[in-house]
Amino acid sequence: MFPIRRTLAKEPKDSFLLLCNLRARFVSTDNCDPPFSPLSKPTKPSSEKKKKKETKQEQSSELVNKTKIPVISDLPFDFRYSYSETNPEIEPIGFREPKRFSPFGPGRLDRKWTGTSALASPEIDQSQWAEERERVLGEPLTDEEVTELVERYRHNDCSRQINLGKGGVTHNMMDDIHNHWKKAEAVRIKCLGVPTLDMDNICFHLEEKSGGKIVYRNINILVLYRGRNYDPKNRPIIPLMLWKPYPPIYPRLVKNVADGLTFEETKEMRNRGLHSPALIKLTRNGVYVNVVGRVREEFETEEIVRLDCTHVGMSDCKRIGVKLKDLVPCVPLLFKDEQIILWRGKRKGEEEVVANIDPEQ
C-alpha cells in the first residue's frame, strides 16, 4: 500500500499574520522607509572654519598688496627667454609681435622689453655681483665633499632634477633652480636635444645666471652646487615670464648661392650631398655631444657631409645647422626632408691655389 499524502491547509492565524506583514510593508505610517530613506543634508561649516578661511584670504590679499609692482631686480644681465640658444650679437630683421607686448606682463617689471630681451639698468655694478657670488660660494669643496655630494645627486632616481630641453637655459629655469636650493644643496640637471651640441655653453650660462658652481659633469648630466653660504631668504629676485614670447625673424641661414661658389657648383654639391651616405642618424631629443667632433673628423677627408635627422623635425634641424655653422665651422647648404647638407668651405690652401691660377690660361 502506498502512503497517502495529505496537504495541510494553513491555519487562519498564519494567514492573518501574513496579511498584516504585507500591509505594514506597503502601507507604512513612517514618512521615510529605511531602504529608501533620503540622503542626509550636508552639514554647514562651522563658524570657526569660516573664520579660518577669511583670515587666509585676508593674509593672501595683504601679501599681494605688499608686493611692489613693477618688480625691481638687481641682476646684472639682460633677461631673455633663452640664454644659451640665442646670440645677442645677431640682430633680428623683424618681429612677429609689437615690442610693447612684454612676456613679464604689463607694468610688472621695471625693465624695457626690446622684443628679444629686457635690458638691465646701466647703474647695476657688475663687480658687486661678482663679489656677492664669491661670498655665497665660500671656500671650495674638498674632494671628499665633492664625492659625497655627487653620489647623492647624480643618480636617475634623484628627486632634485630639472630637465633641460631644446629651449636651453631659460629664464624661468633660474627660479626652478633656486626653489630646489631651498631644501637641497645641489640640483641635478639632465640635458637633452639641440643644446647638448655645446655643453660648455650650457655650463657657462648656468653658473653665470644662477650664481652656483658645477661640481659634476658626465656627458649630459650636470650637478649644480648652490654654495656654502647660500641663504634661501636672501635669494635674488627673478621675475617670471608669464608666457613664451614669439621668436623674432632672423636673416636667412641658407643662401641660394653659397659664399665662394657659383650657382652651378652650389647645385652640384647639394645633389652630391643628398646622394652621399649619412654620417650620423640623429634621434629626437637625443644627446648630441659627439656630433661636432664627428663632423670635424669627416671634413678632414670629405668635402660634403650629410646628417640624417628623420623624425627630428625641421625646426630642430635648423637649430642644429645654426650651431654647427659656428662650432665646426662649416657652411649649411640645404635643409630638405629632414636632411642636413654641410659644406666644409674653402680652406686656405685651396684659396691660394685658386688665386694663383691665371684665368687667361
Protein architecture, described:
InterPro entries: CAF1P_plant (IPR044599), RNA-binding_CRM (IPR001890), YhbY-like_sf (IPR035920). Pfam families: CRS1_YhbY. Keywords: mRNA processing, mRNA splicing, Repeat, Ribonucleoprotein, RNA-binding, Transit peptide. Residues 33-65 are annotated as: Disordered. This is CRS2-associated factor 2, mitochondrial. The protein is α+β, with helices and mostly antiparallel strands. 34% of the residues lie in helices and 12% in strands. The chain has ten helices and ten strands. It has helices spanning 12-26, 47-66, 126-137, 143-153, 171-180, 199-210, 263-274, 291-299, 314-327, 348-356, and strands at 79-80, 117-118, 161-164, 186-191, 213-218, 221-225, 280-281, 304-308, 331-336, 339-343. The strands form three sheets. It has a four-stranded mixed sheet, sandwiched between helices. Strands 7-8-10-9 form a four-stranded mixed sheet, with helices on both faces. The N and C termini lie far apart (143 Å). Residues 4-10, 28-36, 60-65 and 352-361 have low confidence and may be disordered.
